[in-house]
Amino acid sequence: MLAQLIALDWGTTSLRAYKLAEGGQVLEQRSLSTGIMQLPRTPRVIAGQPCADGFELAFDEACGDWLDAQPGLPVIACGMVGSAQGWCEAAYRETPANVADLGNSLQAVRSIRGVDVHIVPGVIQRSRLPNVMRGEEAQVLGVLHHLAGNSGGDLLIGLPGSHSKWVEVAEGCIVHFDTFMTGEIFAVLSEHSILGRTQQRGGSFDGDAFDRGVQVALSSDGEIGPLSTLFSARSLGLTGELSASAQPDYLSGLLIGHEVCALAHAQRHRRNSVHLPSIILIGNSQLCSRYCRALDACGFARVSLGEQATERGLWQLALAAGLIPPTLSR
Amino acid sequence: MLAQLIALDWGTTSLRAYKLAEGGQVLEQRSLSTGIMQLPRTPRVIAGQPCADGFELAFDEACGDWLDAQPGLPVIACGMVGSAQGWCEAAYRETPANVADLGNSLQAVRSIRGVDVHIVPGVIQRSRLPNVMRGEEAQVLGVLHHLAGNSGGDLLIGLPGSHSKWVEVAEGCIVHFDTFMTGEIFAVLSEHSILGRTQQRGGSFDGDAFDRGVQVALSSDGEIGPLSTLFSARSLGLTGELSASAQPDYLSGLLIGHEVCALAHAQRHRRNSVHLPSIILIGNSQLCSRYCRALDACGFARVSLGEQATERGLWQLALAAGLIPPTLSR
């Protein structure tokens, strides 16, 4: 089966490449560690020319052989590759943003082999505290397209990660989103704060410790907020109530618990209703499973997982941009 | 004037030594960097004996000459020197705790020169999320003694630092306290997270940036909590609304603002009143000045600074322990 599109999800620390056929069917996919902060450095010859540019080298590693086999394949990419530190900056589009808005705003950069890489812009929400995303917009649009029919008014799309995004959608548009730095804060506290010193890491997932952290965040003790409750990961250790091996997942549960609790509060406030929206989670399955536990404990009753969000979103964006003939759309 | 007591405030990263005379008058004081995590390592002869113990070496550097001049001087010490990682563990005393409780529970360790160092125990609050302090208890008791007459029911004593403590007192006792890891979180985020990458540090204090961070934390935008608002230190930079040099103090204001906002909420809840207590701050003057700004913005109307808290507290504790004849008490 002939490929129709190469789709790249090119972030800070990783690069995922998809070879897609008619209808967006995945023919092959690859995962590389050549994110924009970890580009290859060893020069080599590409398309007959010596090349030392990290973006060119990573691009060639990711899909050079696919392009050799089918030289005319269009290429689309999302993620930090379009940031100011990326290959070519693709200026943010403002909310509300849909597939057509973003698909019509791709920023092309010509690679050394003469192929254009079409970069999806990120999305910016110009609220008092502005919010930005790069890469997540493709995933959200991929999930939205697949839902077909759900207008999104009762839906919240969650993308857990270093910087979790919670995205409100309406009629195919990204209309509002919040960011939580939970994942990165967990990482820096574990690696660089006093909380990490007593942690024994590397064990299997300790669900009881995780749930205990969530419960503390959701309890009346949690109302004082994470800047204070975090200290319990140490003090419960000092009193012998929390073992060293339980401390990492307790801390994870505490932080994710505070996040979902704040999210529930913000959602009820914005919707002016006690009713909480349905949730679709996109991302790493182990992390999504942690969020499922915490969301459930917090009263989010309808939580499901979005599949193949990135490749579906990039396929739709490539269609909207005219990179693929509409006759091949499905 | 003859000295009556050597008082040591011996923490994780620093050691402060005071030579005190009748009435607790300070004859001389020294500040060393030999906290328990930074002890000296070079062996030398102390009191005629070769010595390689870091605690002995630091103790001798801090006040060996004072003891040479007056060999019979009693020595009292508070802080992390009494922790499990310290010179000798002084088990926590439970809340409520006053000068007599702590003064009667000193833990002596005999130094190589034959002098006993009397270590003040820390205080533990065995609530569902336990809380602990070491060193701050001496400072709180020093301030309390000096207040004389104020029973403390309308008073909250704040000790800003890596781990801020907010201490409720009643009739000379420490009855309740909360910990916020604000200072350490600011440090690890600035040094190790993405927020630090765009910060330009080292400038003079930017009061406008600090106040702006405080206002965000106290505003309706701040209700979503610090895990989310922290991202604005990056996103406001991306939109050109916050300069690189303003980012450190904005982040500081944001975190301290979230702390005092949570504190006000917790205090109103605990006191079942909209009325906020008077505050006495103890600590580094630049940090106290930041907290004064944030507390004022948050509606704490009566804030003052506690002076000489450590040396006064250690003097009172030494008196209670009988290390000093009562006739010299004032």
Automatic annotation (TrEMBL), chains A, B:
CDD domains: ASKHA_NBD_KDGal-kinase (cd24012). It comes from the Bacteria. Pfam families: DGOK. This is 2-dehydro-3-deoxygalactonokinase. It comes from Pseudomonas gregormendelii.
